[in-house]
Amino acid sequence: MEKFMYENDYVVSTRTMAVGPAFEMDGQSKVYERNEDVLVVKDSAMDIISEGCLLGGASYEGRKDAVRYRTGVKRKVPVPMNVFQKIGAMPTHSPRLHNCFWLFPYHIKTIASHPKNHLHSEITFLDGQQLHIDVSAYSLRLQKMRAWEAFSIFFSPSS
Questions:
Q1: Which BP terms from GO are recorded (predicted)?
Q2: Residue 85's domain spans which residues?
Q3: Strand (E) or helix (H) holding 109
């Protein structure tokens, strides 16, 4: 069973593994951090991602436009939030949708089909925490490859 801690606001860090909606909880989003309890935060997932981009030196829209320009990816665009700390996130759905989770690929160990529903996935993070997402494993693996492509461009020393 997950243990929750409540926070008023949250700043993305190298420990952030996932940010998503907090369905049926007193908060707008849940944040999964490496080796920590799950945080319930009053800000929306999109607000947390946008602030992370600004703290990394550019707006969310600017980061998204740069990835589109360099990779040609048009939908569910992965975002290199902080190129110096190599923090980047990928959306599971359109960021406009309430059920969109933002995953931080460097923390993902495995992506597997959910045993009871092949249209859902079980993500296992490097620290052993698991997250159930309503997206197929195939789609998430493809999204992770897109994220790696974008991050390899933006996180390389010569970018």
A1: establishment of competence for transformation
A2: 4-106+137-154
A3: strand 108-114
Would 12 be classed as within a structural domain?
Answer: yes
Q: How many domains does the chain have?
A: 1
> Using an 8 Å Cβ cutoff, are 22 and 40 in contact?
yes
Beta bridge partners of 145: none
pLDDT of residue 9: 82
- Radius of gyration from C-alpha coordinates of the chain: 15
CB 67 within 8 Å of CB 49: no
- Which residue has 């799950």 as its token pair? 38
Q: Which residues contact 68 (CB under 8 A, 6 or more apart)?
A: 74, 77
pLDDT tens across 96-130, in order? 998 999 999 999 999 999 999 989 999 999 999 99
Instruction: Give the rounded distance of the alpha carbon of 102 from its chain centre.
Output: 2
Q: Is residue 64 part of a domain?
A: yes
